[in-house]
Design goal:
flat, 6 helices, single chain, about 20% strand, four-stranded antiparallel β-sheet, about 550 residues, Immunoglobulin-like, five-stranded antiparallel β-sheet
């Protein structure tokens, strides 16, 4: 998101640390540029730093201010945690992240902080957080060196002590378990030795496994005959063929073929005569007084007289006039054609239109919202159009915050969108979060049929469209293609401070946590919602609140 001034470089550097003590500071550097895009060098500026918890618009758990001086290159360096603050940075529980750093800068060294940026702390898992040992509660405030003489060294060890069995009292007596069978008393007359001494038992009978026999060691084995392997070795006592060659002259060659022979219809005897079937109706004998010609010359009355059970009120079917009348295909086709033409016209009217002199497109979004094809103040989609401060209805290209909200200490009308008691000189509060029609630049400039889109309507646009960055008629910007194929082009209009070098479009929604800001559609690597100072000059792309032409 582009501001009146640009912080070109942002980095957080965790200070060097030891395990004994982790500094509660983070280095911050930024390059500051003015509205003319030139570096702000050798100048005293003021910076306010806030640590936000949970999200980019979360609660500020720590805030501090700094007075610093830029160097010859526009670089300013400060240490977060070393500024003026009533908060304690060491009280932040980094385990309850994520955390974000919000920076606000006044290049004049005052307190009109109009350069705002928010970035997530991604690397502070952080050196400071490391001192708390992850999820272990921070007990550093009451842990001191143990000097109590009643506490032994072993009780101060990090690990639970290991005991030897001899150090444990009242342990049970463990009996000695014998390892030999001979140690037991043989009260059952079991064998007391595995050695067989009976001389009548040979050694092979004492073997643990059954002996293996060779076939030659088996008595009375049958004689195994030799079985021939070829047929010719057998005696042909049945007059079987002794050869596979068929030599019988009475067997023709076709009978010896492996596959069954194929016959032609002409080779089959006693086939029936197949009659010739005529192809024209006129070849048949007209024995039922059917029409002998395809030319119909009868009228409706003649057809009814033939007993076809037609309704007696049947009229000329080319021009039906009553409910019972039949209709020709030609008449129906012409009617369908007329209906389709009417549907096409209706569809064209639904997806595009022109209201109060300005064109809109239906992108097929779930809500049916219709988006203007041009910015306020533009005549073609590629024009930037006019720039407006948020809530201003005349093109003013943005303004300073002091001029925007106050005039000689008195509140202007626009402060009615404040819902923070600290906002404004008089602490004025209300509950307004959306611009009223009288403060809507689209409504005032284009008529009551138009208005600025809300935060949710911008989100619906970017979440449901195909988004393509492209150059159209020599102008860079985004083409947003809706679910129905229709599209709009939003130019890279930038803002009043830096035209044609960014992408900022006002919504009608205020930032409720920081009411001096409002939500806008911006671009980093893709389109997303962010916020900026209400005094900034941004473009406006209206939506149509009605489809009346």
């Amino acid at each position: 998101m582009k501001k009146n001034f640009i912080l070109a470089v942002f980095c957080l550097i965790i200070s060097a640390m030891t395990f004994a003590q982790v500094p509660q500071k983070m280095s911050y550097q930024a390059v500051v540029r003015g509205s003319d895009n030139n570096l702000v060098t050798n100048s005293e500026i003021s910076v306010r730093i806030s640590i936000l918890q949970g999200s980019t618009d979360g609660e500020a758990v720590y805030t501090e201010t700094h007075s610093a001086t830029t160097n010859a290159n526009g670089l300013v360096t400060i240490e977060i945690g070393d500024g003026t603050s009533s908060d304690d940075i060491s009280a932040i529980n980094w385990a309850n992240g994520p955390y974000f750093v919000k920076t606000e800068t006044d290049v004049n060294g005052g307190y009109n902080y109009d350069i705002i940026g928010v970035s997530q702390l991604l690397s502070v898992p952080y050196a400071i957080y490391a001192q708390t040992a992850g999820n272990v509660p921070d007990v550093s405030s009451f842990l001191t060196e143990e000097t109590d003489p009643t506490v032994s060294e072993w009780a101060k060890a990090e690990n639970k002590p290991v005991y030897d069995y001899s150090e444990i009292t009242n342990t049970p007596e463990i009996p000695t378990v014998p390892t030999n069978v001979s140690a037991f008393e043989n009260d059952a007359n079991y064998l007391i030795s595995y050695t067989e001494t009976d001389p009548t038992v040979p050694s092979w009978a004492m073997a643990e496994t059954k002996p293996v026999y060779d076939y030659s060691e088996i008595n009375n084995t049958p004689e195994i005959p030799t079985i021939p392997t070829i047929v010719s070795a057998f005696e042909n006592d049945a007059n079987y063929l002794t050869s596979y060659t068929e030599a019988d002259p009475t067997v023709p060659a076709w009978a010896k073929a492996e596959t069954k022979p194929t016959y032609d219809y002409s080779e089959i005897n006693n086939t029936p005569e197949i009659p010739t079937i005529p192809t024209n109706v006129t070849a048949f004998e007209n024995d039922a007084n059917y029409l002998t010609s395809y030319t119909e010359t009868q009228n409706i009355a003649d057809v009814a007289a033939l007993g076809n059970l037609v309704n007696t009120q049947l009229k000329n079917v080319t021009d039906p006039t009553e409910n019972q009348d039949a209709a020709t295909k030609k008449y129906v086709d012409e009617l369908v054609s007329q209906l389709q033409a009417a549907i096409d016209v209706l569809n064209a009217r639904v997806t595009t239109g022109r209201t109060n002199g300005h064109d809109w497109v239906d992108l097929g979004l779930p809500s049916g919202t219709r988006w203007a094809t041009c910015n306020v103040g533009a005549v073609i989609p590629e024009d930037n159009g006019n720039y407006f401060a948020w809530g201003y209805t005349t093109a003013n290209n943005g303004t300073s915050w002091g001029s925007y909200c106050f005039c000689n200490g008195s509140e202007r009308t626009l402060t009615k969108y404040c819902n923070d008691a600290s906002f404004g000189n008089n602490g004025y509060t209300d509950s307004l979060t959306i611009l009223e029609p009288s403060d809507d630049a689209a409504t005032i400039n284009w008529g009551e049929e138009w208005r600025m889109p809300t935060y949710d309507e911008f989100n619906e646009l970017i979440n449901n469209c195909t988004i393509i960055f492209r150059t159209q008629n020599s102008k860079s910007g985004y083409l947003l293609i809706g679910p129905n194929g229709n599209s709009i082009f939003m130019p890279y209009a930038g803002n009043y401070g830096i035209p044609n070098a960014g992408f900022s479009y006002w919504s009608s929604s205020i930032h409720t946590n920081y009411p001096n800001n409002a939500w806008s559609l911006t671009s980093s690597s893709t389109l997303n919602m962010s916020w900026g100072s209400r005094a900034s000059g941004y473009s406006i792309r209206p939506i149509c609140a009605t489809t009346q032409n």
